[in-house]
Amino acid sequence: MDRLSNLRQVLGKKLLEKVENSKILMVGSGGIGCELLKNLVMSGFKNIEIIDLDTIDLSNLNRQFLFQRQHIGKSKSKVARKSALEFNPNVNIVAHHANIKDPQFNIKWFKSFDIVMNALDNLDARRHVNTMCLAANVPLIESGTSGYLGQATVIEKNVTECFECQPKPTPKTFPICTIRSTPSAPIHCIVWAKNYLFAELFGKSEDNDEIDEEVTEENNKEIENLKKESQALKELYQYAGTPEYSEKVFDKVFNQDINRLLKMENLWKTRTKPTPINTEQYKKALEINMDVDEDKNDSKIKDDQKIYSIEENINMFKECLELLVQRQLKGKKIDPEFSMSFEKDDDIIMKFVAATANIRAHIFSIEQLNRFKIKEIAGNIIASIATTNAIISGIIIMDAYKILNNQLEECNTIYLTHDSSSNVFVKEFLAKPNPRCAVCRKSYFVLTINIEKFTLNDLLNKVLIKPKDNNGLGLNGDITICEDQRILYDFDFDDKLNDTFSKVKIEDGKYLNITCDDDDKMYNIMIYIINDSSLDKDFILEGDSTSISYILPPEPEPEPEPEKTNKRKHSDGDDANNKKHKVITVDIVDDDDKVETVLLD
Amino acid sequence: MSNLCISRLIEERNQLKKDFIPGFKAGPLKTKDGNYDILNWEAYIPGIRGTSWDGGIFKLNLKFSKDYPLKPPKCTFNPPVFHPNIYLSGDVCLSILNEYEDWKPSISIRDILIGIQLLLNEPNLESPAQHAAYALYQENRLEYEKRLMIQSKNHYDINNIPYLKRHY
Ligand SMILES: [Zn+2]
């Protein structure tokens, strides 16, 4: 009896054959990826490519079970491959330790797969894979988990919603006024400590060089003064390394700035006034508690779960600031451009952010948090649970079977919920594409050229505006050519028209986003570039020019969510709709993510 | 890359070309390497005629994130402007630019620019951001208006910006 006999009975000979002959791409081999790869090799799949740019970290080991302690620092995809082959040596796994956005993973490569499975932890890569799968016309199984919540769905061009048909919740950001002037929650203080104070003191000196010299020449004192004031904190840097430095910084941010806020009475009509801490109080605090060397008597775990007194926080502030300044001075000696960025695993930085966040919270009468909690918020750590990943990976395999069996209509969007009052699974029919989606309603083309010879002008005149019956795309109107966020050509920017693709750095594997505005109708086209230096003609254009249609403008207002009628709810709970919403708001994260902005649910 | 954000910004740019606002200029900024960056715009906002802002032309940077239009752009006057609702760094504090207040994805760049132009002459004293301007406004309106008029005189003369003439 071979190892596939049970599977053969369940799937039938025909489907198992399809499974064995299929070629699968798995993007990401972290939390979901480890579970999924194990499932793949155990359920009949024989040709698998996996890709991940990460290396293994100690914190992965509790759930990413293909990795062990001796693998720390090694490539996730390579180790995952090796470990999975021990489950089943009779499969082919190709592992890429690389970024899925690298040009070698071009449209041709995507086209070589029968199914692509996303096991990713960030929006950017997911959007990229979504676009590539649409362009290559390959079905994509998209998934994500966060704590006990998870979801999986299938994306197929022209049949289902794509990843971008509905707007995705984005990491929470806070208005600048709340952060700088009127914090009202612990998170506001944490964001201030991390993104303002720490960044101002130790980060890159950004943007300021943008201020134009030409203007300031005009003896404009007002502007000078404003600039000076906004630079006041940075100017304290001249005292860095001296004993007064920490006192001056403290006085600036926790006394002077707070007093300035207090003077704007309107801010405090309906809010609790902040209470500044003056230098005298600061010095007193340092006297009371000269030693907060916490590692001496307590264990670390206990310490970072403790709420410190204001005096302890002030001591912590001084101690950490001095250590960080030393680091900064040393760094600047070697490289004048030296800067530090927030790193949650750097103990000193974390203590500094926690202490200053808590001092600010104290000043504004906001609840203080322990360092463990602050680290979770500032470091944007989201719990990832092995069981959730395992369940979602199981669903992905079931979806893959259905796709290979030509039963796409049997696939569902499945939400794993965490609420004992109703079903753990909420199933929904796959939604139809959003006719207003600017991503999947586009037409996709592949253009093969010699990038050393072909110019933007050639693209414009020989491809874009040339009539459809003459091997062109027949665009008529204001044309804009973009590559990512770069505008290469539009009605005003035409100085690059005579440049070759190579000169404007449009190389093999890049894609161009072309918009044509024809009397308020927006036509949107994506063109993938393949470079062929031995091409014997101008270009080869692949794609269906008759498919070009304009995209409906966005709906007037996304007022109260309209009830979707094309969806069948399998859950009998009345609140299924609410629950679905709740799940969606967290579906974007798999593992601990390094997004800069703070994300909370 | 987010296709949504870039498509929308291209649309906004085409819209501004068709539906031009007299006295204003706005468009993507040329980066140091000679490219135009669709996520980074520069705008010139004229002070309203007949107010203490008259004659001034104020340069504003608009930084769009890839989450635009779900999130508003960050608007910063560069150089900063003396005004109760503008931070010393030049950042503008305005409810339509606040994701949790009045920002809606349907708000156009045109709406933002006009909104900021209005804000210049009609500060919102409920959410002050710059102490000096706020205090002077409260304590000595006459002196406040005087400062504004000096400021307007000292801010840009649009004809002296050669780059602008070429590309907007
Ligand atoms: Zn779509």
TrEMBL record, chain A:
Compositionally biased intervals (Basic and acidic residues): 561-578
Stored InterPro entries: ThiF/MoeB/HesA, ThiF_NAD_FAD-bd, Ub-E1_IAD_1, Ub_act_enz_dom_a_sf, Uba2, UBA_E1_SCCH, Ubiquitin-activating_enz, UBQ-activ_enz_E1_Cys_AS
GO BP of this protein: protein sumoylation
Pfam families, alphabetized: ThiF, UBA_E1_SCCH
Domain Ubiquitin-activating enzyme SCCH: 281-375
One function term, GO molecular function aspect: transferase activity
Listed pathway(s): Protein modification; protein sumoylation
GO terms under cellular component: cytoplasm; SUMO activating enzyme complex
Domain THIF-type NAD/FAD binding fold, residue spans: 8-438
Major location category of this protein: nucleus
PROSITE patterns: PROKAR_LIPOPROTEIN (PS51257), UBIQUITIN_ACTIVAT_2 (PS00865)
Localization (cell): Nucleus
Lineage top rank: taxon: Eukaryota
Keyword vocabulary terms for this entry: ATP-binding, Metal-binding, Nucleotide-binding, Nucleus, Transferase, Ubl conjugation pathway, Zinc
Residues that bind ATP: 28-33, 52, 60-63, 76, 121-126
Active site: C177
Binding site for Zn(2+): C162, C165, C437, C440
Subunit composition and interactions: Heterodimer.
PANTHER family on file: SUMO-ACTIVATING ENZYME SUBUNIT 2, UBIQUITIN-ACTIVATING ENZYME E1
Family: Belongs to the ubiquitin-activating E1 family.
UniProt protein name: Ubiquitin-activating enzyme E1-like
Organism: Anaeromyces robustus
From TrEMBL, chain B:
CDD domains: UBCc_UBE2I (cd23798)
Transferase in keyword set: yes
Lineage of the organism: Eukaryota, Fungi, Fungi incertae sedis, Chytridiomycota, Chytridiomycota incertae sedis
Active site positions: C93 (glycyl thioester intermediate)
GO molecular function list: ATP binding; transferase activity
Pfam families (alphabetical): UQ_con
Domain UBC core, chain residue ranges per copy: 4-157
Transmembrane regions: none
Protein name: Ubiquitin-conjugating enzyme
Alphabetical UniProt keywords: ATP-binding, Nucleotide-binding, Transferase, Ubl conjugation pathway
PROSITE patterns found in the cross-reference section: UBC_1, UBC_2
Assigned protein family: Belongs to the ubiquitin-conjugating enzyme family.
Tree of life domain: Eukaryota
